Amino acid sequence: MRLLCTYLILGQKTSMRAIGCCLVIIAGFLLGVDQEDASGTLSVVGVVYGVLASLCVALNAIYTQSTLPIVGDSIWRLTMYNNLNALVLFLPLMLFSGELGEVMFFPRLFNVTFWMWMSLSGIFGFAMGYVTGWQIQATSALTHNISGTAKAAAQTVMAVIYFSEIKTFMWWVSNVIVLLGSAAYTYVRKQEMDKKAVIMKSADRKPLMSTKVEDDRDLV
Question: Which compartments is it annotated to reside in (predicted)?
Fold first, then answer.
């Protein structure tokens, strides 16, 4: 889905090696879904919402990458616009959902501790938005999505270990496959970016007078 959206919206092609790594990640996820189904904990509604959430995350990264040139490749400016848009969009949503009245009668509305934690969460939210845009700018929308997938898989494994949950052997295999596929994608993309950097560096070192010298030789 992410590969398709990247190609259709941004017009960017992905190398076969990177696509192979993505297929490994997809296989790991499918195996994990199969294990959830076998254990009786699979929710169809949960799967649907998960797919929609994945689509929204992919589109957010893709449109972030396509919007950056419009704001002069400035992450600060893009983050500011995102926060201003969110402020405007959430006000009518709060009004129509009745949450505005809940806020007015909230018992801790003027509590200093409450606003301290709210401000801290806002700072972290702003920082996450900035770092997300920075990562997309430095790499690509697809790479950002793959890193998010690896993070989610790692967090899932750590949570299962922390809460001492019992999972099947194949469940562990599925998460290992996802993590290995993500690591392989990272390695492949690093090689591709290093190769691209070398080509660009070689082009920058090309003598500016080479064309003129060749033209002069032709005239002689």
Answer: Membrane
Q: How far is CA 174 from CA 34, 88, 140, 170, 185, in A?
A: 10, 42, 26, 6, 17
pLDDT tens column, 146-182: 998 899 999 999 999 999 888 889 989 999 999 999 9
**Cβ-proximal residues to 165 (8 Å cutoff; 6+ apart), any chain:** 159
CA dist., res. 78 & res. 166, Å (int):
44
Rounded-to-integer distance, Cα 171 and Cα 176, Å: 9
Amino acid at 56: C
Question: What is the overall mean pLDDT for the chain?
Answer: 84
Q: pLDDT digits over 115-127, tens only?
A: 999 999 999 988 9
Strand, coil or helix: what is 110? Answer: coil
User: Token pair 């893009």 is at which residue?
Assistant: 78
Handedness of CA 13, 137, 79, 153 (dihedral sign): positive
| Distance between start and end Cα atoms, the chain | 59
Q: How many CA atoms lie within 13 A of 4 on its CB side?
A: 4
How far is residue 151's CA from residue 144's CA, in Å, rounded to a whole number? 11
Cα 128 from chain centre = 11
| Predicted structure pTM score | 0.74
For 36-74, the pLDDT digits (tens) are 766 666 777 887 888 888 888 888 888 899 899 999 999
- The identity of residue 213, as a single letter, is V
> Among all chains, which residue has been given the structure tokens 């709210």?
118
Asked whether the beta carbons of 19 and 184 are under 8 A apart, the reply is no
